[in-house]
Structure formats: structure tokens, C-alpha cells
């Protein structure tokens, strides 16, 4: 059968990083497929992709300003950012989220990110281990 090319070719199932969850609540579509902006820094888009290489996977994430299509942020690494793992381990696994309404969980997540993650936790990914928000503020004040 192989000689006459009668063997079925296996369908390729990519080993992607995203799995659709039919039960998940859909987010509100704030962009409405309008990927333009009349002012800089008013609308940013982001995406992440996995690029296979001979020595492993490379994860690429970019942030684009819709005003001029400029890539304003870029990150590449051989492992994905561990932010969501940290959020779950440090906060969400500590509480029974299924006992709280979404509004309460949103508040918990917002406070974790804006109060703790950005302003209190020490970050070893930037020089000096500054807290993320403090590091950005210092960098911007030195540039001014």
C-alpha cells in the first residue's frame, strides 16, 4: 500500500499553548475589530507565539501600538513568563474562588497585581531587583 501511496497521512495536531474552553465566559470585545487609534498609547495589542527551534521552543511576545503599528514592547525566552503561575500560587490557590462572585475575584486579582505584584514584590528580572513599578518610575525620571 505504501508503494502506491495509499497510506493515510496523519493529520498534524500542533502542540499549541492555547486550548479553547467552551465553558469559559467570553470577554467583552472592547476593540470591535477596530485596530486603529488617532493618538499614541491609547490602544495597544499583544500576542504571543511559540517558535520551534533545533534546541527547544522560543516564546515570543510583542505589544503593538495601534496608532502607528510600532512594536513598543517585545520579550523572547525559552520559557513562558511565570506571572500566571505566581498569581495562582500566591493568591488564587489560597482562596476558594468558586465561593466568590466574579466581581469579588476581579477585585482580588486587581489588588494583587496593582498593589502587590507591581509595587511590593521584589523582582529579580531587572537590574537591582527593584519592584516593577518603581523600576519603571526611576528609569523614566532618569531619562527626563
Automatic annotation (TrEMBL):
Coiled coil: none annotated. GO terms for biological process: DNA integration. It comes from the Bacteria. Pfam families: rve. Residues 39-86 form the Integrase catalytic domain. This is Integrase-like protein. It comes from Paenibacillus taihuensis. The lineage of its organism: Bacteria, Bacillati, Bacillota, Bacilli, Bacillales.
Amino acid at each position: 500500500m505504501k508503494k502506491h501511496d495509499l497510506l493515510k497521512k496523519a493529520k498534524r495536531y500542533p502542540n499549541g499553548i492555547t486550548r479553547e474552553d467552551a465553558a469559559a465566559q467570553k470577554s467583552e470585545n472592547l476593540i470591535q475589530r477596530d485596530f486603529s487609534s488617532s493618538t499614541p498609547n491609547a490602544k495597544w495589542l499583544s500576542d504571543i507565539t511559540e517558535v520551534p527551534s533545533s534546541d527547544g521552543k522560543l516564546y515570543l511576545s510583542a505589544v503593538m501600538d495601534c496608532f502607528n503599528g510600532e512594536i513598543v514592547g517585545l520579550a523572547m525566552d525559552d520559557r513562558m513568563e511565570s506571572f500566571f503561575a505566581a498569581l495562582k500560587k500566591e493568591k488564587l490557590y489560597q482562596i476558594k474562588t468558586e465561593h466568590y462572585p466574579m466581581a469579588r475575584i476581579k477585585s482580588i486579582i486587581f489588588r494583587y497585581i496593582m498593589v502587590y505584584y507591581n509595587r511590593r514584590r521584589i523582582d529579580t528580572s531587572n537590574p537591582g531587583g527593584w519592584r516593577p513599578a518603581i523600576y519603571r518610575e526611576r528609569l523614566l525620571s532618569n531619562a527626563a
